Input
Amino acid sequence: MNILAEELNRTLSDSVAYGFLSPIGRRMYFPKGIVAQSDEAKEKAKKYNATVGLATKNGAPFYLEDIYSMFREGSLKPAQIFSYAPGGGDKELRALWKEHMVAKNPSLAGKRTSLPLVTGGLTHAISMAAQLFAAPGDAIVCPDLFWDNYDLIFRDLIGAEPVLFPFYGADGGFNIEGMKKALLSVEGDHARIILNFPNNPTGYSPTKEEAKRIVDAVVSVADAGKKVLVLSDDAYFGLFFEDDTETESLFSFFADAHENIFAIKGDAATKEEMVWGFRVGFLTYASKGFTDAHIDALTKKTLGMIRCTVSNCDRPGQSLIVEAMKNGAHYDEDKAAIFSEMKKRYSIVRKAVEKHSGEGVLTPYAFNSGYFMAFDTHGRDAEELRTYLLDKYQIGVINIMGRTLRLAYCSVEPEGLEEVVDTVYKAAGELWS
Ligand SMILES: Cc1ncc(COP(=O)(O)O)c(C=O)c1O
Output
């Protein structure tokens, strides 16, 4: 094993994170290679800097005029578009993201967390966390309605074993008892769980009271001596449409909940800043027992993962997000307007679904947030309904695991939403009643 990896492992050995490291996680380190040497040269090589594979003239990168001319004159400098971004991301963006994270999650104020590391979108953040902290055969607890990419990442890439529990409990809310039972059922003294709220595909987020009980349940598992890694996938953070919904990420509470809890937050500019194609995500770590040295070691291991997967992330995207967050004249106003449009669509869908309540073929799952709502098809083939809707009514929806039909109301104009919902019910009736 590389001596730098050994050093990081020694630093982490008295932290909760250590026992979660996979063999990849143990081997990972940030090399003192080209990147570190060129960083050093940036400071000291005042005469000639012949370190980086980036073609420059007069200190700025070369570029194609056809590309640069697409940017408004005087907006971004060539270096903000064409240069490599630092491995962990633009420093200003990382600081801004953290500042906004604390503003949006007041419970995080004063809590020790890492500085968010920039990733190539949230998928990359989750995939790296999976590779660092889960190994073949490790159990990964997850509610049974989840983003389908988890299967590819945890089961197929890592070889971990999903431990699923029913998403909804008997009261129709999040199944906290089921979650706790699933965590306790994991053999050994380490359990891993991924929680995604607002959820894809259901569009459900816990109420304030449920959020508290979720945290209490995980703390009780930690109290019993199990170490628990909680990965919060906050892809749709902020899209909360009901007053009783918890508006803070569970990460805010897990961050200092217990020495046995290792909290990881995966989030992204993707949906929070409406920049789906930019590929800018973030990974942040916290635990009650972490020291600065632990956080530094985890950061270095993650920098190593970034280096060996994408090397560094999208530069123009990061620069544009920094400009908007820092200097945007319409930033808050635009975000508020888009939130209000999503809430309007949510309300239309809610009403349309309520109109059909009691029609037995489909049952909408409880939803209150995010971009989606989904129907339980009660064991009937959701793929059959999906293709029927597509062929007969030219309406596209998603079949989730053959038993759930997901409707992304975020991508349909308000005027069409009632018709979409009505047609889904009509089609299900035609097929199945
Ligand atoms: C629940 C969930 N997590 C993560 C992601 C991935 O986000 P990104 O596009 O930033 O990789 C998505 C995207 O659809 C998602 O629905």
